[in-house]
Amino acid sequence: MRQATGADLVNLATSQMVDGWPGIEAAVLAMQTNVEAALRDQRVRRATEFVLHAWGAKGGDRRQEAHAIYDFVRSRVEYRRDPAWLELIQDPRVLLARIEEYGWAAGDCDDHAQLIEVMGLEVRLPMVSVLVGESPEPFTWPTAKLLAAMQAAFDAGRPAPIHVYAAMREHPSSPDPSQAWLDGDDDAPSYLISLDTARPGARFDAHVGGVVRYIRPALAA
Q1: Does the pLDDT of residue 9 top 50, yes or no?
Q2: pLDDT digits (tens, 9 = 90+) for 119-151
Q3: 3-state class of 190 per DSSP?
Q4: pTM of the model
Q5: Which distant-in-sequence residues (6+ apart) come within 8 Å of 66 by Cβ?
Q6: pLDDT attached to residue 218
Q7: Is the pLDDT higher at 100 or at 209?
Q8: Helix (H, G, I), strand (E, B) or coil at 86
Q9: Could you give the dihedral angle defined by the CA atoms of residues 192, 193, 195 and 201, in that order, rounded to the nearest 10 degrees?
């Protein structure tokens, strides 16, 4: 019998996808709940410290620390879509345990975002979750239409109609940027360092174009 690992000890949250904005909000709330729980786990702290040391990030240099976390997640977590009709929200500890056991893990954009967010918060980086759409309409679509549009985008190699990623706040006039709500602020991306690892072709500090519908502050470290 295989010995139980950390990944076996943390449940995966799955839920039936709900139409429109209520379903999106439910997924974001599940992400934030996972982040809060993972922050209380010393295994996450140890993993973050190991990554920053291994990548040679200078302590206290926010950009170096963020870039190290970005490179780690991008190199170790493959992009994989959720099962049909389900929203699978993986606890970041599951991904870290699988990386420890197998050397890699897999998840979609919300899984990538959660892992980056919690690792950044472990060293007090001002992290946020950014939710963008190619236009306002996808936020109101029924599930079937959204899934069909997502599939068409994947097949054509285009950005998804709705995408979520982690980012770090950076304000030019403040060394310690606040984590205030930025809901609907069109200028918000100019104050963010993108840490998007799930989108094909993404690079450090390159934002996804589109309508910023929801920028949610991460929970305080």
Answers
A1: no
A2: 999 998 888 888 888 888 999 999 889 888 988
A3: helix
A4: 0.84
A5: 120, 125, 168, 193, 195
A6: 61
A7: 100
A8: strand
A9: 110
